[in-house]
Amino acid sequence: MRKVALAARSTGPKAKPRFTDNKAGYAFIAPWLIGLVIFTIGPMLYSLYLAFTKYNLLQPPKWIGLDNFTQMLGDERLWNSLRVTLIYVGVGVPLQLAIALAIAVLLDRGMRGLALYRSIFYLPSLLGGSVAIAILWAQVFGKNGIVNGFLSIFGIDGPGWISDPNTALGTLIVLHVWTFGSPMVIFLAGLRQIPEQYYEAAQMDGAGKVRRFFSITFPLLTPIIFFNLVLQVIFAFQSFTQAYIVSGGSGGPSDSTMFFTLYLYQQAFTQLHMGYASAMAWVLLVIIAALTALNFWLSRFWVFYDD
Length: 307
Hints:
The protein is built from 14 helices and 2 strands. By secondary structure, the protein is mostly helical. The protein has one domain: MetI-like fold, CATH 1.10.3720.
């Protein structure tokens, strides 16, 4: 009887698989998908086509192959803009992360009004890329600005920090470092995830604060440091507003603040070299992708995962 029942059950009508109806979900995300295709993927693919053309907005694009890319090899202003951008990223990002980590460690001690301090320190990250802050920065570091006003108290006649090619880029790096709030909040969240018993055990073994930081805090925080490093490098390469406003769109004295993005803007909207600017944009994408891949490869040597 049992075999007959099993045979009948196996030969009976099979239950239809239950498929989840995703129509409502697709309907909700349809506006985002449409915007992604129309405003992101579509323009990107068209800019890739324009990178191989000569186009000035007034006439139809003319296919010229790799001429835009070969022209870059002899463009001294482009190479200078790339050098300025690399200095900005190479100096500004490590300083920003170091200060963000230091402030996060101080705030992690459980002081009163932590939420207030965290909000105050985070505020520059919200305002740092705005036009208003860039204009304010130009006033602060101007010849008659706040910085020189402070130096005059000690009898020091400060230079025009923005108009001096030796210091103009430094002012933008300081502005970038000032916006440490975003990585600081992420560091603070990572510090809260480190088990307290690690510190208690190290303290019982006689480890001081510095030893505990470099033996416990830093190794366990390396995934967060790596995450912030990748994000901030990408964001720094895309910096534009600060250089444009502070230098008035000219790139500063002797092109000292001519970021790659600013030079791209000049080629596209000042000289109407849309094809050349599109090629520059894709070169910038390749540079960012290459540096991101390099960071991921190097992470295996210094990032510690507690698994």
